[in-house]
Write a structure and sequence with these properties.
The chain is mainly alpha-helical. It is 46% helix and 0% strand. This is Transcription factor CBF/NF-Y/archaeal histone domain-containing protein.
């Protein structure tokens, strides 16, 4: 019995240049909070808020590291 020759398939899908980040916010709760005072919410508002949350996390990690800690505390986020 002849062995099948292994071949690599060319990637048919284009890879996007920016990797989409996981959503850290609960969409329904966030939209509810934003609409709470009668405002409309654009389709990309949640993505912008999600990016901001990632930025806050990054800043908190940097502050924590700069202070020689491995535990992120509220003042690392809120200050």
């Amino acid at each position: 019995m002849a062995k099948k020759k292994a071949t690599k398939k060319a990637a048919t899908k284009k890879k996007s240049s920016a990797k989409k980040k996981d959503m850290l916010l609960v969409s329904s709760k966030t939209k509810e909070a934003l609409k709470g005072k009668g405002y409309n919410v654009s389709s990309d508002a949640l993505e912008a808020m999600n990016e901001y949350v990632y930025w806050l996390v990054d800043q908190a990690q940097k502050k924590c590291t700069a202070n020689g800690r491995k535990t992120i505390r509220p003042y690392d986020i809120l200050a």
